[in-house]
Design goal:
By secondary structure, this protein is of the alpha/beta class. It has two domains: 15-172, Nitrogenase molybdenum iron protein domain (Rossmann fold), CATH 3.40.50; 184-296, Rossmann fold. It is 33% helix and 17% strand. Strand 4, helix 2 and strand 5 (71-73) form a beta-alpha-beta unit. Helix 2 (56-64) packs across helix 5 (141-153), helix 5 (141-153) runs antiparallel to helix 6 (156-175) and helix 7 (202-210) crosses helix 10 (282-296). The longest helix has 20 residues, at 156-175. The two termini are 32 Å apart.
Length: 297
Protein backbone atom coordinates (compact mmCIF):
# COMPACT_ATOMS: atom_id res chain seq x y z
CA UNK A 1 0.00 0.00 0.00
CA UNK A 2 2.65 2.47 -1.03
CA UNK A 3 1.13 5.86 -0.43
CA UNK A 4 -2.27 4.40 0.68
CA UNK A 5 0.59 3.59 -1.02
CA UNK A 6 0.63 4.66 -4.56
CA UNK A 7 -2.74 3.05 -5.45
CA UNK A 8 -3.52 1.48 -8.90
CA UNK A 9 -4.48 2.14 -12.54
CA UNK A 10 -4.98 1.34 -16.24
CA UNK A 11 -3.42 1.95 -19.64
CA UNK A 12 -4.61 4.80 -21.75
CA UNK A 13 -6.51 4.67 -25.04
CA UNK A 14 -9.24 2.59 -23.38
CA UNK A 15 -9.65 5.05 -20.51
CA UNK A 16 -12.37 7.30 -21.85
CA UNK A 17 -14.38 4.37 -23.22
CA UNK A 18 -13.93 2.64 -19.86
CA UNK A 19 -15.34 5.65 -18.07
CA UNK A 20 -18.31 5.77 -20.42
CA UNK A 21 -18.86 2.03 -20.06
CA UNK A 22 -19.03 2.49 -16.30
CA UNK A 23 -21.75 5.14 -16.60
CA UNK A 24 -24.51 2.77 -15.53
CA UNK A 25 -22.26 0.48 -13.49
CA UNK A 26 -23.97 1.02 -10.16
CA UNK A 27 -26.13 -2.13 -10.11
CA UNK A 28 -29.41 -1.80 -8.24
CA UNK A 29 -30.79 -5.04 -6.86
CA UNK A 30 -34.21 -3.72 -5.85
CA UNK A 31 -35.82 -0.53 -4.62
CA UNK A 32 -33.59 1.21 -2.12
CA UNK A 33 -30.67 -1.19 -2.37
CA UNK A 34 -27.34 -1.22 -4.23
CA UNK A 35 -24.48 -3.66 -4.66
CA UNK A 36 -21.09 -2.45 -3.43
CA UNK A 37 -17.63 -3.46 -4.68
CA UNK A 38 -17.61 -6.52 -2.43
CA UNK A 39 -20.78 -7.73 -4.15
CA UNK A 40 -22.79 -7.05 -1.00
CA UNK A 41 -26.34 -5.69 -1.21
CA UNK A 42 -26.46 -2.43 0.73
CA UNK A 43 -29.54 -0.75 2.22
CA UNK A 44 -30.07 2.82 1.01
CA UNK A 45 -33.12 3.53 3.14
CA UNK A 46 -31.25 4.55 6.29
CA UNK A 47 -30.26 8.20 6.73
CA UNK A 48 -26.56 8.96 6.27
CA UNK A 49 -25.41 11.88 8.38
CA UNK A 50 -22.28 10.57 10.12
CA UNK A 51 -19.72 8.90 7.86
CA UNK A 52 -16.40 7.27 8.72
CA UNK A 53 -14.22 7.05 5.61
CA UNK A 54 -11.44 4.47 5.60
CA UNK A 55 -9.84 5.32 2.25
CA UNK A 56 -8.15 8.58 1.19
CA UNK A 57 -9.85 8.57 -2.23
CA UNK A 58 -13.25 8.14 -0.59
CA UNK A 59 -12.65 10.97 1.84
CA UNK A 60 -11.69 13.26 -1.01
CA UNK A 61 -14.74 12.26 -3.07
CA UNK A 62 -17.06 12.96 -0.14
CA UNK A 63 -15.65 16.47 0.18
CA UNK A 64 -15.89 16.92 -3.59
CA UNK A 65 -19.56 15.96 -3.33
CA UNK A 66 -20.06 18.71 -0.77
CA UNK A 67 -20.76 16.43 2.19
CA UNK A 68 -17.48 16.84 4.03
CA UNK A 69 -19.45 18.10 7.02
CA UNK A 70 -20.88 14.60 7.39
CA UNK A 71 -17.45 12.95 7.63
CA UNK A 72 -16.78 12.26 11.31
CA UNK A 73 -13.83 9.88 10.94
CA UNK A 74 -10.93 9.39 8.54
CA UNK A 75 -7.69 7.45 8.31
CA UNK A 76 -4.34 8.99 9.08
CA UNK A 77 -3.64 8.87 5.33
CA UNK A 78 -6.64 11.08 4.51
CA UNK A 79 -4.93 14.44 4.08
CA UNK A 80 -6.92 16.00 1.24
CA UNK A 81 -8.59 18.37 1.00
CA UNK A 82 -6.97 20.35 3.84
CA UNK A 83 -10.32 20.48 5.62
CA UNK A 84 -10.17 16.70 6.01
CA UNK A 85 -7.36 17.12 8.52
CA UNK A 86 -9.87 18.69 10.90
CA UNK A 87 -11.78 15.38 11.01
CA UNK A 88 -10.93 12.92 13.79
CA UNK A 89 -8.46 10.24 12.70
CA UNK A 90 -9.44 6.67 13.49
CA UNK A 91 -6.07 5.22 12.47
CA UNK A 92 -5.45 2.86 9.58
CA UNK A 93 -7.85 1.95 6.79
CA UNK A 94 -6.87 -1.70 6.53
CA UNK A 95 -7.77 -3.93 9.48
CA UNK A 96 -9.01 -0.82 11.31
CA UNK A 97 -9.68 -0.44 15.02
CA UNK A 98 -13.42 -1.09 15.28
CA UNK A 99 -13.74 0.36 18.78
CA UNK A 100 -12.27 3.67 17.67
CA UNK A 101 -14.60 3.74 14.66
CA UNK A 102 -17.64 3.08 16.84
CA UNK A 103 -16.58 5.93 19.10
CA UNK A 104 -17.49 8.31 16.26
CA UNK A 105 -21.09 7.00 16.29
CA UNK A 106 -21.29 6.54 12.51
CA UNK A 107 -24.36 5.53 10.57
CA UNK A 108 -22.16 4.60 7.57
CA UNK A 109 -18.60 3.27 7.44
CA UNK A 110 -16.97 3.26 4.00
CA UNK A 111 -14.21 0.68 3.62
CA UNK A 112 -11.59 0.14 0.97
CA UNK A 113 -12.59 -3.12 -0.69
CA UNK A 114 -10.09 -5.64 0.69
CA UNK A 115 -10.32 -9.14 2.12
CA UNK A 116 -8.46 -8.01 5.23
CA UNK A 117 -11.35 -5.67 6.09
CA UNK A 118 -14.02 -8.40 6.11
CA UNK A 119 -13.85 -9.12 9.87
CA UNK A 120 -14.28 -5.43 10.71
CA UNK A 121 -17.17 -5.14 8.25
CA UNK A 122 -18.94 -8.14 9.77
CA UNK A 123 -18.48 -6.77 13.29
CA UNK A 124 -19.82 -3.32 12.43
CA UNK A 125 -22.78 -4.66 10.45
CA UNK A 126 -23.71 -6.94 13.36
CA UNK A 127 -24.35 -3.77 15.35
CA UNK A 128 -26.81 -2.47 12.76
CA UNK A 129 -24.46 0.08 11.22
CA UNK A 130 -24.34 0.33 7.43
CA UNK A 131 -21.08 -0.37 5.61
CA UNK A 132 -20.04 0.24 2.03
CA UNK A 133 -16.98 -1.27 0.35
CA UNK A 134 -15.47 0.78 -2.47
CA UNK A 135 -12.57 -0.05 -4.75
CA UNK A 136 -10.60 2.98 -5.99
CA UNK A 137 -7.64 1.42 -7.73
CA UNK A 138 -7.85 3.06 -11.14
CA UNK A 139 -8.99 6.41 -12.48
CA UNK A 140 -11.95 4.70 -14.12
CA UNK A 141 -12.99 3.51 -10.63
CA UNK A 142 -13.65 7.12 -9.66
CA UNK A 143 -16.91 7.08 -11.61
CA UNK A 144 -18.42 4.07 -9.91
CA UNK A 145 -17.20 5.15 -6.46
CA UNK A 146 -18.58 8.66 -6.95
CA UNK A 147 -21.94 7.38 -8.18
CA UNK A 148 -22.21 4.99 -5.22
CA UNK A 149 -21.35 7.70 -2.71
CA UNK A 150 -23.62 10.17 -4.51
CA UNK A 151 -26.55 7.77 -4.15
CA UNK A 152 -25.86 7.27 -0.45
CA UNK A 153 -25.54 10.98 0.29
CA UNK A 154 -28.27 12.31 -1.99
CA UNK A 155 -25.83 14.17 -4.21
CA UNK A 156 -26.33 12.42 -7.54
CA UNK A 157 -26.42 15.64 -9.56
CA UNK A 158 -23.10 16.77 -8.10
CA UNK A 159 -21.67 13.30 -8.79
CA UNK A 160 -22.78 13.51 -12.43
CA UNK A 161 -21.15 16.92 -12.78
CA UNK A 162 -17.82 15.77 -11.34
CA UNK A 163 -17.74 12.73 -13.60
CA UNK A 164 -18.62 14.69 -16.73
CA UNK A 165 -15.87 17.21 -16.07
CA UNK A 166 -13.31 14.45 -15.49
CA UNK A 167 -14.28 12.71 -18.73
CA UNK A 168 -13.76 15.92 -20.71
CA UNK A 169 -10.40 16.66 -19.06
CA UNK A 170 -9.04 13.15 -19.60
CA UNK A 171 -10.23 13.06 -23.20
CA UNK A 172 -8.42 16.34 -23.88
CA UNK A 173 -5.27 15.07 -22.19
CA UNK A 174 -5.35 11.88 -24.23
CA UNK A 175 -5.82 13.84 -27.46
CA UNK A 176 -2.90 16.16 -26.66
CA UNK A 177 -0.60 13.46 -25.28
CA UNK A 178 2.93 13.79 -26.73
CA UNK A 179 3.71 11.10 -29.31
CA UNK A 180 7.37 11.89 -29.99
CA UNK A 181 10.51 11.61 -27.86
CA UNK A 182 8.75 9.43 -25.32
CA UNK A 183 10.99 8.85 -22.29
CA UNK A 184 11.03 5.41 -20.71
CA UNK A 185 10.45 5.92 -17.00
CA UNK A 186 11.11 3.75 -13.98
CA UNK A 187 8.51 4.53 -11.31
CA UNK A 188 10.48 3.65 -8.21
CA UNK A 189 8.35 3.28 -5.09
CA UNK A 190 11.07 1.97 -2.78
CA UNK A 191 14.76 1.20 -3.01
CA UNK A 192 15.49 -1.53 -0.45
CA UNK A 193 14.19 -3.91 -1.60
CA UNK A 194 13.53 -2.36 -5.01
CA UNK A 195 9.77 -1.94 -5.48
CA UNK A 196 8.48 -0.54 -8.76
CA UNK A 197 5.06 0.41 -10.13
CA UNK A 198 3.35 -1.81 -12.70
CA UNK A 199 0.50 -1.31 -15.14
CA UNK A 200 -2.26 -1.80 -12.57
CA UNK A 201 -1.40 1.39 -10.67
CA UNK A 202 -3.07 4.75 -11.18
CA UNK A 203 0.41 6.30 -11.09
CA UNK A 204 1.24 4.28 -14.20
CA UNK A 205 -1.74 5.88 -15.93
CA UNK A 206 -0.74 9.37 -14.92
CA UNK A 207 2.77 8.81 -16.27
CA UNK A 208 1.41 7.48 -19.56
CA UNK A 209 -1.03 10.35 -20.03
CA UNK A 210 1.74 12.81 -19.24
CA UNK A 211 3.66 11.50 -22.24
CA UNK A 212 6.07 8.92 -20.82
CA UNK A 213 6.25 5.14 -20.89
CA UNK A 214 6.46 2.97 -17.80
CA UNK A 215 9.30 0.48 -18.25
CA UNK A 216 7.28 -2.07 -16.26
CA UNK A 217 4.05 -1.48 -18.24
CA UNK A 218 3.87 -5.17 -19.10
CA UNK A 219 3.36 -6.18 -15.48
CA UNK A 220 -0.34 -6.35 -14.56
CA UNK A 221 0.19 -5.53 -10.90
CA UNK A 222 0.08 -2.25 -8.98
CA UNK A 223 3.57 -2.75 -7.58
CA UNK A 224 6.16 -5.47 -7.44
CA UNK A 225 9.51 -6.30 -5.95
CA UNK A 226 12.24 -6.64 -8.60
CA UNK A 227 15.98 -7.09 -8.76
CA UNK A 228 18.36 -4.33 -9.71
CA UNK A 229 19.37 -6.56 -12.61
CA UNK A 230 15.80 -6.44 -13.92
CA UNK A 231 15.89 -2.64 -13.77
CA UNK A 232 19.23 -2.58 -15.61
CA UNK A 233 17.70 -4.74 -18.32
CA UNK A 234 14.81 -2.26 -18.77
CA UNK A 235 17.32 0.63 -18.98
CA UNK A 236 15.04 3.58 -18.09
CA UNK A 237 15.77 7.08 -19.37
CA UNK A 238 14.45 8.64 -16.17
CA UNK A 239 13.55 7.60 -12.64
CA UNK A 240 10.39 9.01 -11.09
CA UNK A 241 10.22 9.31 -7.33
CA UNK A 242 7.73 10.93 -4.99
CA UNK A 243 8.57 13.60 -2.46
CA UNK A 244 7.57 11.43 0.49
CA UNK A 245 9.91 8.64 -0.59
CA UNK A 246 13.04 10.82 -0.83
CA UNK A 247 14.74 7.92 -2.57
CA UNK A 248 17.31 10.13 -4.25
CA UNK A 249 19.10 10.28 -0.90
CA UNK A 250 19.28 6.52 -0.52
CA UNK A 251 20.14 5.04 -3.88
CA UNK A 252 23.83 5.87 -3.78
CA UNK A 253 24.84 2.33 -2.86
CA UNK A 254 27.33 0.63 -5.17
CA UNK A 255 24.83 -1.86 -6.57
CA UNK A 256 22.53 0.93 -7.79
CA UNK A 257 25.30 2.40 -9.91
CA UNK A 258 24.68 -0.41 -12.38
CA UNK A 259 21.53 1.51 -13.43
CA UNK A 260 22.74 4.31 -15.76
CA UNK A 261 19.77 6.60 -15.04
CA UNK A 262 20.44 6.39 -11.31
CA UNK A 263 24.20 6.62 -11.65
CA UNK A 264 23.76 9.78 -13.71
CA UNK A 265 21.16 11.20 -11.31
CA UNK A 266 18.44 11.33 -13.97
CA UNK A 267 15.69 11.68 -11.38
CA UNK A 268 12.56 13.72 -11.47
CA UNK A 269 10.33 14.13 -8.46
CA UNK A 270 6.58 14.62 -8.18
CA UNK A 271 5.30 16.49 -5.15
CA UNK A 272 1.75 16.35 -3.85
CA UNK A 273 -0.75 13.84 -2.47
CA UNK A 274 -2.56 13.83 -5.83
CA UNK A 275 0.18 11.41 -6.88
CA UNK A 276 -0.67 8.99 -4.07
CA UNK A 277 -4.33 8.23 -4.91
CA UNK A 278 -6.88 8.45 -7.71
CA UNK A 279 -8.85 11.68 -7.41
CA UNK A 280 -10.55 14.39 -9.42
CA UNK A 281 -7.25 16.29 -9.20
CA UNK A 282 -5.71 13.77 -11.60
CA UNK A 283 -5.87 16.06 -14.67
CA UNK A 284 -3.91 18.72 -12.79
CA UNK A 285 -1.36 16.12 -11.68
CA UNK A 286 -0.97 14.92 -15.27
CA UNK A 287 -0.42 18.46 -16.59
CA UNK A 288 2.22 19.17 -13.96
CA UNK A 289 4.05 15.95 -14.77
CA UNK A 290 3.81 16.69 -18.49
CA UNK A 291 5.47 20.06 -17.91
CA UNK A 292 8.29 18.37 -16.00
CA UNK A 293 8.81 15.92 -18.86
CA UNK A 294 8.88 18.78 -21.35
CA UNK A 295 11.89 20.18 -19.51
CA UNK A 296 13.63 16.80 -19.93
CA UNK A 297 12.87 16.81 -23.64
Amino acid sequence: MIGFLLSRLLVIPALVSALVACASDVPETNAGRLVDDNGRSVDLSRPVTRIVSLAPSVTEILFDLGVGDRVVGRTRWCDAPPEALEVTSVGDGLEPNVEVILGQQPDLVVFYSAVSNEPAIAQIESLGISTLSVRTDRLADLERATRLLGRFTGTTERADSLIAELEVDLAQLEESRPRDSIPHVLILAWDNPPIVIGEASFLHEIVELAGARNVFEDVDRPSLRVSIEAIVERDPDLVLVTADSALTNRVDRAEWRAVPAIRDQRFFMVVGNEYSRPSFRAPSAIRRLRSALEEWR
